User: Which sequence fits this backbone?
């Protein structure tokens, strides 16, 4: 009886976790990337999603306080960025969820990342993609379609992401 109870509780927990994860997803593989505008602290426009047409785009959401985000950004710096930064068909958007430009400038002074960081104060851009959970990345193909989503960070999935970027650029 005790084993049945435990198994039942595990099943209920798994179903709740699955439902919560589904509720955080606003964009799924196969969907078109939402339109958005990245805006600086002073209100000026930094980048419009419409300017990315015809490019393979990796949209990555992170926070400066998030340990898995730190691991992922270190991998972006050491592996992904050196591989793709000079490719005219690729654009990397590393977006600080709920951060200001000034906060990201201070953060980058400590980290010395060579890729650009974009602020998303108020989670305006993030909220068009998801409800919660970072790090989170969306790979968009040249037609504007989401072809890969990753949530969290692990080395194996990061390697797969790099392969998918390479394939999409071809």
Assistant:
């Amino acid at each position: 009886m005790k084993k049945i109870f435990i198994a039942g509780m595990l099943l209920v927990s798994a179903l709740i976790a699955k439902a919560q994860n589904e509720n955080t997803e606003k964009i799924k593989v196969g969907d078109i990337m939402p339109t958005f505008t990245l805006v600086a602290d002073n209100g000026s426009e930094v980048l419009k999603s419409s300017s990315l047409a015809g490019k393979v785009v990796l949209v990555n959401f992170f926070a400066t306080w998030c340990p898995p985000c730190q691991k992922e950004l270190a991998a972006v710096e050491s592996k992904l960025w050196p591989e793709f930064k000079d490719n005219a068909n690729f654009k990397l958007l590393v977006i600080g969820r709920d951060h200001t430009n000034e906060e990201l400038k201070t953060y980058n002074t400590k980290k010395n990342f060579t890729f650009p960081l974009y602020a998303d104060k108020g989670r305006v851009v993030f909220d068009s993609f998801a409800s919660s959970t970072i790090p989170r990345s969306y790979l968009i193909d040249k037609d504007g379609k989401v072809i890969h989503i990753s949530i969290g960070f692990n080395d194996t999935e990061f390697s797969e992401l790099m392969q998918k970027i390479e394939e999409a650029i071809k």
Observations:
- The helical segments are 2-24, 67-84, 101-111, 124-129, 155-169.
- The first helix runs from residue 2 to 24.
- The two ends are 57 Å apart (CA to CA).
- Confidence is low (pLDDT under 50) at residues 7-23.
